[in-house]
Amino acid sequence: MDKYAVVSDIHGDSGMLKMLINRAIKESAKAILCLGDIGLSQSADIVDSIRSSSLPFSIVRGNCDSAWDFSNVSMHMPPKYKTVELGDRTIFFTHGDSIKVWHDAPVHLLQNDIFAFGHTHVPILYRDDKSPWILNPGSASRPRCNCDPSMAFVTNEEIRIVSILTGMVLKKGLQWL
Question: Is the pTM of the predicted complex or chain greater than 0.85?
Answer without folding.
Answer: yes
